[in-house]
Amino acid sequence: SRATLFDAENKVNITFDDVAGLDEAKEEIKEIVDFLKNPKKYTDLGGKIPKGALLIGPPGTGKTLLAKAVAGEANVPFFSLSGSDFVEMFVGVGAARVRDLFRQAKEKAPCIIFIDEIDAIGRSRGRGMMPGANDERENTLNSLLVEMDGFGTDSGVIILAATNRPDVLDSALLRPGRFDRQISIDKPDIIGREAIFKVHLRRLKLGEDVDAKKLAAQTPGFAGAEIANVCNEAALIAARKNKQEVNMQDFQDAIDRVIGGLEKKNKLISPEE
Ligand code: ATP
């Protein structure tokens, strides 16, 4: 049904408070919040508000979270779809979905459209290996380009897209008037990890021995998604032991479990090792 084509969360409760670290990215993206809140301030002076920004960074680093926080801060609706939904799609369906998304978004403007994994649609044209499937992806990409060109900068629709493969994107997507801003989001360092732990620890009933700094030191290489996972696992481990609070030992067990899960995943991805 139409309702399942994409999420139209009319109210987003996420704000910049929920996004830990990423100070530079937040600073850059604040401008977009201001465009959404006070478009006239910019257009009165003859400025053109950008249509889109690309969030670039590894999986699980908070790109989706940050895009939602923009909608939450500006108090506008959030429409999203994922590039991976467009893989293996029947002819014409992808392009129709994109048109439908933009039509609905324009009706609800000001708003955010978020396209996760845009590289699945926006891979440079003529680079795929399966000719048949590729044609349909190109149709989808073309309709995205047409839609982006088809509305004015004063329409109040801002498109955020996420990718961890900016190198494969079709250059047409990066032209002025399309995704002409790029915001990079890196894996957190130890300070960033501590901040992310603090955000996710807020939800738990903690013992006195729990120390975010120590947890950050024990989780090198973890992205935000893995840290969120550790916090949830720790609560489950403590609950299974019928405890009233989550202690450092539960976190240590959770970290081991998450590392174990990551190793398994890596083995599946690279069978030659
Ligand atoms: P993907 O590329 O895999 O879609 P992503 O970069 O969009 O990943 P998110 O989906 O935003 O990552 O992150 C997943 C979850 O991890 C978030 O919902 C949040 O719970 C947690 N998380 C990730 N980064 C942060 C962060 N900087 N601060 C707080 N929580 C974070």
TrEMBL record:
Residues 49-189 form the AAA+ ATPase domain. Coiled coil: none annotated. ATP binds at residues 57-64. It is found in: Cell membrane; Membrane. In the C-terminal section; belongs to the peptidase M41 family. Homohexamer. Acts as a processive, ATP-dependent zinc metallopeptidase for both cytoplasmic and membrane proteins. Plays a role in the quality control of integral membrane proteins. This is ATP-dependent zinc metalloprotease FtsH. The chain holds residues 187 to 459 of 674 of the full protein.
